[in-house]
Amino acid sequence: MQTEVKKSRLENLFIDGTIDEETVADIEKMLTRKKVEQLHKYKIMYNPKRDAWYTANPHDYNKRIQRKTRGELLDALKPYYMSSSPLCLQDIFEEWLEYKKTITESPNTIHTHIKHWKRFFDGTDFFQIPLKEITVSEINSWANQLIKKYNLSNHSWQTIKTIPKQMFEYAKDQGYILNNPFSELKVTVKFRQVTKASSETQVFNTDEYHRIVEELWASYDKKHEPRFLSVICNFLMGLRAGELCALRWRDLDMEKWVITIHQEMVHMDASQLNDPYYDVYKVSGQIAILPGQEGKKGLYVLLDHTKTHTERTIAIIPKGQKIFQLLKENAPDAKPDDFIFGYGSKYLNLRALNSVLEYACAHIETDVKRSHKLRKTYASRLNAAGLPLDQIRANLGHASLTTTLGYIYNPLTPEESLKLMEKAFDD
Known about the structure:
Largest sheet: 3 strands, antiparallel
Structural class: mainly alpha
Distance between the termini: 97 Å
Number of helices: 20
Number of strands: 9
Shape: elongated
Strand order of the largest sheet: 1-2-3
Strand content: 5-15%
């Protein structure tokens, strides 16, 4: 009752013009937080190691609710105690995200969820509807309208719907709702059709491949820098750009001539890495910030896993063996932890790899293609040579053949394609 009297006084002050609307909102928030703190029966504590405040979940003492500030923590507790604010998806996003952090080994997944949340969901009408009142028809209407509004492809929709799908599952597990209506979602609108790009834009044909290799060997002979041979190597191994940059001498077995892929270099925002969430990964060595990047907004880091969290081994063919032998001869003191394509205190990063490829394309006067096209060229040349698709899939590190099929294009020149067509119909 006393709080209601205070609110009436505030309203009168607002009407009189004594205080502005923003000040009223701040005071209202302060009063609400105080009320929540009085109703909450568990201790609210600060964890200096994580630089965060936490307390027990009012519905389950064995579960925690954690936020960056004490005020944000009280705001997260508000739906549990204030009947005037029925729980909605907007209210539980941060709580779900904290839970998600405990069950994923990929920091980039969390970063992607936050990015998608801000773009598609945060503050929208559907996410303000009380959870217990959401019907299947409302979900269907919202989803289909969202797909039309952003002209989403099926792939894009499958990616972003992970957030509401898992939030509904979490809400049911937490007892916020008895049933999960999201499981009955039906998409009836048409997705944006994605036309597969042409081979000319996605892979280097036979002629371009040979000319680029020749150009890069010439550059290496002049400057003796491993970066020039990195592109040639990836024509022969088809690694992700970050996997290629992360290769160390310890990954290469020069007796069996196989190389093990188990790490990846990625580029991350420095502000993102400052999040306490990443501290445990830094301490454990799962994330290692590479040296010489102080003060930069974007940082190159090493992850102790590949994109798919799956280690794989690739056979090195004789042309690749020649390159690695040459690099080893020119770096006789190289240690197992040294980067194969590094030199001195430097390491090959993603931008440098693309620069080498751009340089080569410019010199042979062909359209510039990014380093990922080396991977597609590798897959397409193996397919054209008759290697079984499942082996190509394994070499690329894909979990699904469907993904691998998206990497297959025609790497032959028009003349080579015509000859094969003629051969197919020879009597």
